[in-house]
Design a protein that fits this description.
Layout: H1 8-21, H2 36-49, E1 56-60, E2 68-71, E3 75-77, E4 82-85, E5 91-100, H3 114-119, E6 121-131, H4 143-148, E7 153-162, H5 166-169, E8 174-179, E9 182-188, H6 198-204, E10 219-224, E11 229-230, E12 235-241, E13 244-251
Parallel strand pairs: 1-10, 3-7, 4-13
Antiparallel strand pairs: 1-2, 5-6, 5-10, 5-11, 6-7, 8-9, 8-12, 12-13
Helix pairs in contact: 1-2
Length: about 250
């Protein structure tokens, strides 16, 4: 049952304050959303507090099989020179992102196939997400609180365009990540769902998503190809996936 006393603005304000200070609090210290709608209300207020206006999103599927999304912020489009924030506990993820060339409106009957979703994609890119959450336990105790905290996004850089074939062949592609000249990942790319479009297809078929979602021009990142790697210090990141390369800085 939805908690009628829950105040999404109060949760958003607490999350925004912690994020600004680079501090965490335990789950018990937060007012907890009672359902998906309340969590998304808080996330929307948090996005307003942070002044988020980008049309860039992450998608995921938690254990309850309800597709979820959150805005990427700060967001940059740069092959090199971008700067993202770093705080203790920050994690790195190399990802494939896509830009939609066609709308994917909510369907009242039937479901989108993978082929239909892929056909709506105009371009594929190498991207980098930094993640960090104000919730000390992350999503372990309350996935809804984690959803309210923008699914732990701390920033995103959209890098070089890649061949569209990467959507089908990404698994196994050589991926190397260097931090201040030292390797922190050097192995084959691997997505937890193998197919990088799995969560996007799931979200496209979610009849509860906003009518304004998944419109042409939107950028959606599709999930990590190397897991979430904790980054011990600020510095220079150099990421290579196949023949694509991007560079960015993490700053305190």
């Amino acid at each position: 049952m939805t908690d009628s006393t829950f105040d999404p603005r109060a949760l958003a304000a607490k999350l925004a304050g912690l994020r600004h200070a680079g501090k965490q609090a335990s789950t018990a210290e937060f007012p907890l959303p009672g359902d998906h709608r309340q969590a998304m209300d808080a996330q929307n207020f948090l996005a307003a507090e942070e002044g988020i206006r980008s049309n860039a999103w992450k998608v995921s599927m938690p254990a309850d099989n309800q597709p979820v999304t959150a805005p990427l912020h700060p967001y940059f489009e740069a092959v090199s020179g971008a700067k993202l924030p770093w705080v203790a506990g920050t994690k790195f993820e190399a990802e494939i992102a896509v830009r939609l060339g066609k709308d994917l409106p909510i369907r009242s009957s039937g479901k989108y196939t993978r082929a239909e979703v892929a056909d709506a994609i105009a371009d594929a890119y190498l991207g980098v997400e930094m993640s960090w959450t104000a919730v000390a336990e992350g999503s372990k105790i309350s996935p809804l609180l984690f959803l309210a905290d923008r699914l732990a996004n701390l920033g995103y850089v959209l890098g070089p365009v890649m061949p569209r074939s990467i959507l089908d062949t990404c698994t196994g592609t050589p991926l190397k990540v260097m931090l201040n000249g030292q390797p922190i990942y050097d192995a084959a790319a691997k997505h937890v769902k193998v197919d990088v479009l799995t969560w996007l297809v799931d979200y496209a078929n979610d009849t509860f998503r906003p009518d304004s979602s998944l419109r042409a021009g939107a950028v959606i990142t599709t999930g990590s190809l190397c897991g979430a790697i904790e980054v011990a210090t600020a510095g220079e990141l150099d990421v290579t996936l196949g023949d694509a390369r991007m560079q960015l800085a993490l700053v305190r």
